[in-house]
Amino acid sequence: MKNLKIVLVDDEKEFVMTLAERLQLRGIQTRATTDGEYALQLIEADPPQVVILDVMMPGLGGLEVLKLIKAQYPQIQVILLTGYGSTKEGITGMHLGAFDYMMKPVSIEELIEKIEEAIDSQP
Amino acid sequence: MTVNHSFFPEQGERMKRWEEKEVKFFGKITAGFTHELKNVLAIIRESSGLMEDIISISPEAIILYQDKIQKSLDRIKNQIIRGVELTDRLNRFAHSTDENIAKIDLPEFIEQFIALSQRFARLKNVALITVPAEQPDQSITIVSRLIQLQMALYTGVECCLNTMPAGGEIRIGLKQSKEKVAVQVLCKGDLPEESEFIHNISASEKWQDLQEISAGLGGSVEVDESAHGIVLFLPDEIGP
Fold it and tell me: Which range marks the domain in which residue B24 is found?
């Protein structure tokens, strides 16, 4: 997991900050934000290998952010996080180029496994 | 509840359509709440996980990271309070099906309604707030159908959300006249011209739904052009 850079986007501030701290404790360089538009700025400033993205967000929603990421940075792997009780958004996201989707609350071990899988299958 | 739709086929079809809409409304609100509850659980999980991470580094780390542990404990405490409130609201919403017609304390109803619908407005970057009552201690009660009343107000809010830009607010307030009560749903923010606003609201499919639900409650609905909003007129007591 050395030199691994990720961007974490979720509108629940406390969730995103705590998860970022936990990933950082595991040596993963994590930048976190609650805002889809700001996430795009973070990506532009220093493109990460993986973006973890909440689907349901106010303003620019997760699927919109996903489309914009994939249009400009097709090599970045996007993992969608959703608390929505349906797989519909996750499947739509995969059609739009997301690597996979996971239902919240997700365990950090499962998330890290998914990040590793995403890195291994990076185009 | 079993309804015989066979006597008047046209009316039966209409009732069936409305029952389906009621179930969808119930599902939508409940799904929104479960999303919020999942967020609460996710924060509790990550906060306790962070404490575990720190403790597993070494026993000395507990003292070194005392601030982080305290912050995580505070987060857990706050999310438990949030979770309890959400569960309480969801429980009250589920119980709104207990009686078909009930006595409703409107200020309390509006407070509960705002808690139920806040999330949907927030996703559109719109704040949902209560207009303080002119006489705060005055109780305004009506006898009506609780589920349909919630649907009416929710549909009114949806009409506004579909018409107004992000960053605004929707204010919900009450006015009482002799035999009727008026529930106002007013839009504030960077709104279109009055004529465009009225056209947008009354042209939407939700507006037709709102008119039908209001009629079903023995009331009516109007667009208040000068106040940029919708007014729902309700009788003191719904007929049989």
Answer: 9-95
